[in-house]
């Protein structure tokens, strides 16, 4: 699916297993927060590699964590594509106390010292633009790093430094 410069890879196309239960709708819609994390996995540079990483993340979230589905609303790969996790308008399982009022986007890879690819950042920006344009994200949304809202290194120092330079980044919720 090609939309406004971001290509979305559907759940069918990345080989998702069905969720254990359908996700609940967001309590605040459009959500005022976009929360950026990283998967803390190996990075990926091709659609085949990225789809595999997303399948592994889903399996870990369902079988390891006992969640109903992959925790993120979307993921972005080093291939420059956006992978549909739970999708728009539904509660994720990524940031305690914020799942009902945010969209969670996870960068596939580990970004403590390594920066994400330009294509990955472009995919995030275009995905957020699309969300705002379609009324799926509040126009005055706050962009936050996962670590600002919970005890974690995510999204990694290198990615967090980049987030802090973006127009919607907010130091406080």
Automatic annotation (TrEMBL):
Presence of the UniProt keyword RNA-binding in the record: no
SMART domains, sorted: Ami_2, PGRP
Gene3D superfamilies with a match to the protein in the record: Peptidoglycan recognition protein-like
Alphabetical GO biological process terms: innate immune response; peptidoglycan catabolic process
Keywords: Disulfide bond, Immunity, Innate immunity, Signal
Pfam families for the chain: Amidase_2
Listed GO MF terms: N-acetylmuramoyl-L-alanine amidase activity; peptidoglycan binding; zinc ion binding
InterPro entries in the cross-refs: Amidase/PGRP_sf (IPR036505), Amidase_domain (IPR002502), Peptidoglycan_recognition (IPR017331), PGRP (IPR015510), PGRP_domain_met/bac (IPR006619)
Positions of the N-acetylmuramoyl-L-alanine amidase domain: 21-156
Domain (Peptidoglycan recognition protein family): residue spans on this chain: 6-150
Disulfide bonds: 44-50
PANTHER family (UniProt xref): PEPTIDOGLYCAN RECOGNITION PROTEIN (PTHR11022), PEPTIDOGLYCAN-RECOGNITION PROTEIN LC-RELATED (PTHR11022:SF41)
Similarity comment text for this entry: Belongs to the N-acetylmuramoyl-L-alanine amidase 2 family.
Name by which UniProt lists this protein: Peptidoglycan-recognition protein
């Amino acid at each position: 699916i090609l939309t406004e410069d971001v290509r979305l890879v559907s759940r069918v196309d990345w080989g998702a297993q069905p969720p254990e239960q359908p996700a609940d709708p967001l309590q605040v819609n459009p959500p005022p927060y976009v929360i950026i994390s990283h998967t803390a996995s190996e990075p990926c540079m091709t659609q085949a590699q990225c789809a595999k990483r997303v399948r592994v993340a889903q399996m870990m979230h369902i079988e390891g964590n006992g969640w109903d589905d992959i925790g993120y609303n979307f993921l972005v790969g080093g291939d420059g594509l956006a992978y549909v996790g739970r999708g728009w308008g539904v509660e994720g399982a990524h940031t305690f106390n914020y799942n009902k009022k945010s969209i969670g986007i996870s960068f596939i890879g580990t970004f403590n010292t390594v920066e994400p690819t330009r294509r990955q950042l472009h995919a995030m920006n275009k995905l957020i633009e699309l969300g705002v344009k379609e009324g799926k994200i509040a126009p005055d949304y706050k962009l936050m790093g996962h670590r600002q809202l919970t005890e974690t290194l995510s999204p990694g120092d290198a990615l967090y430094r980049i987030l802090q330079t973006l127009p919607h980044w907010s130091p406080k919720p």
